[in-house]
Amino acid sequence: MIDHLALQVADVAATAAFYTRVFAPAGVREAMRYDTPGGPVVGLCGPDGHPRLWLGPLAEGTDRPVHLAVVAPSPEAVDEVFALAREQGVELLHEPRVWPEYHPGYYGAFFRDPDGNNVEAVHHTFPTGPA
């Protein structure tokens, strides 16, 4: 389980706007913003209000795209996130689908954010009843 993740990005404001727009169906919003000598730092949160994704200025010489998976409340929210990412014109990696190789009921979609990071919206549907 991830407590928080910090990404170094080329344009903090643009990337914060991207994440809050595309992941709005998952409840992502800006929780806080503060200035540093290198530029602004933004903390994004989900419905619980705790900043878990931090965006800060790109450190010189850094080229480290990462993978970030954001939980979506339903498969429909995964579809909506993917549609919003498409509207933003970013690179689309994988259309929404079930990924049984991860586990039964793993429904996800993958795309790149404006800085080239591999971003995923995922919903986990677990079987109920006796094992």
From TrEMBL:
It holds the Pfam family Glyoxalase. Residues 1-124 form the VOC domain. SUPFAM superfamilies: Glyoxalase/Bleomycin resistance protein/Dihydroxybiphenyl dioxygenase (SSF54593). It comes from the Bacteria. This is VOC family protein.
